[in-house]
Amino acid sequence: MAAAIEDYPNNFEEFLDRFQTEEDCVEYIMEIRWPDGFSCPRCQATKAWTTSRGLLHCSKCRHDTSVTVGTVFEGTQKPLRVWFHVMWMLMAQKTGVSAKNLKEFIGFGSYQTIWGWLHKLRSVMVRPGRDRLSGSVEVDETYIGGKEKGKRGRGVENKVLVAVAIEGVDDRLGRVRFRCIEDASGENLIPFVCDMVEPGSKVTTDGWSGYTDLSDNGYTHDKRTIKGSGLEASDLLPNVHLVITLVKRWLRGTHQGAVRPSHLQDYLDEYAFRFNRRLSTHRGKLFYRLMQQAVSTTAPGIKELYKM
Predict the structure, then answer these.
(1) Nearest to 68 by CA among 58, 55, 81
(2) Where do you find CATH 3.30.420.10 in the chain?
(3) Contact 89, 100 (CB under 8 A)
(4) Between residues 49 and 86, which one has the greater pLDDT?
(5) Under 8 Å between Cβ of 302 and 112
(6) Tens digits of per-residue pLDDT, 153-182?
(7) Directed axis angle between helix 99-106 and helix 111-122, to 10°?
(8) Rounded mean pLDDT of 215-234?
(9) pLDDT (tens digit, 9 = 90+) per residue, 3-16?
(10) Do 89 and 104 contact (CB within 8 A), yes or no?
(11) Distance (Å, rounded) from C-alpha 211 to C-alpha 58?
(12) Which of 238, 217, 263, 228 lies closest to 98, judged by CA?
């Protein structure tokens, strides 16, 4: 089977020309959702016709389905054109956008609505079954959150502990992975590495005991002890510390540090999505990748998100 052709607008002018009507948006969703042609979600038949209500009517089992059912757009009361604009802006800006700024720019009456939209989109940015990191990978943890007086290091309270892994590819940064974890024990750190890094890879960490069992799990463990080395952690693990600095700067800048601990993983997933595609020639390709995720994955409802 031939690979699907990646069809996306290269710039904002092309985006405006491409998506002028709701019908344009529906056609694009169908094109990405069913690249080989329509497939009925009930019987997998391939022939259907469009009803007067805009539903797809299966010619075999007579089941009616909406093009947005089972997608991020399911149940929306807003035009798809508005959704497309939000997605374009989210991907076109290298630093992303905040709900507050987007509400003011687009003119949404409800902050809750645009905040929910952005979180729905963040929630589908991690592709199921994505490839694990490989080769040479640096791993460390960091605390993200408000300031805590009098305490530093792995015992800090009222912050979220985040495990970070970053590839090194030919003296440059590769892909990144994040996970919010409860503590820095081996029970959390080893599964993180196993889930994110391909066995056989070289994993570089500091001397923390939570990484002791990496060698027993099929990794070449390069342990770099800071104490007595005369060097800073950022000297021994330069790649992962650079990424940690960048993601904290992004959270403080774009989002003014106003991120709930319960939602932090979604923000980190957004950062990873954009970081891992930072070399894309056209911003439209990020829009296309996000659209692929949006039409193949459902997302939590806004009320459910607000309860988190």
Answers:
(1) 55
(2) 136-260
(3) no
(4) 86
(5) yes
(6) 554 556 899 999 999 988 899 999 999 999
(7) 120
(8) 89
(9) 557 899 999 999 99
(10) no
(11) 54
(12) 263
pLDDT over 90 at 215, yes or no: yes
Residue 236 corresponds to which tokens in the numbers above? Answer: 């021994």
Superfamily per CATH, domain 136-260: Ribonuclease H-like superfamily/Ribonuclease H (3.30.420.10)
pLDDT above 90 covers a percentage of the chain that reads 63
Q: Let me know: does 223 contact 205? Beta carbons within 8 Å.
A: yes
Are residues 213 and 194 in contact, defined by beta-carbon separation less than 8 angstroms?
no
* Strands 160-169 vs 172-181: parallel, antiparallel or unpaired: antiparallel
User: Residue 87's closest CA among 73, 75, 77?
Assistant: 73
Nearest by Cα to 192 from 208, 180, 209, 206: 180
Tokens 């009320």, located at residue: 303
- Alpha-carbon span 75 to 28, nearest angstrom: 18
CB 64 within 8 A of CB 57: yes
Q: What is the 3-state secondary structure (H, E, C) of the chain?
A: CCCCCCCCCCCHHHHHHHCCCHHHHHHHHHHHHCCCCCCCCCCCCCCEEECCCCCEEECCCCCEECCCCCCCCCCCCCCHHHHHHHHHHHHHCCCCCCHHHHHHHHCCCCHHHHHHHHHHHHCCCCCCCCCCECCEEEEEEEEECCCCCCCCHHHCCCCEEEEEEEEEECCEEEEEEEEEECCCCHHHHHHHHHHHECCCCEEEEECCHHHHHHHHHCCEEEEECCCCCCCCHHHHCHHHHHHHHHHHHHHHHCCCCCCCHHHHHHHHHHHHHHHCCCCCCCHHHHHHHHHHHHCCCCCCCHHHHHHC
Question: How far, in Å, CA of 96 to CA of 78, rounded?
Answer: 22
Q: Which two tokens stand for residue 217?
A: 């799990």
Say if CB 162 and CB 176 are below 8 A apart. Answer: no
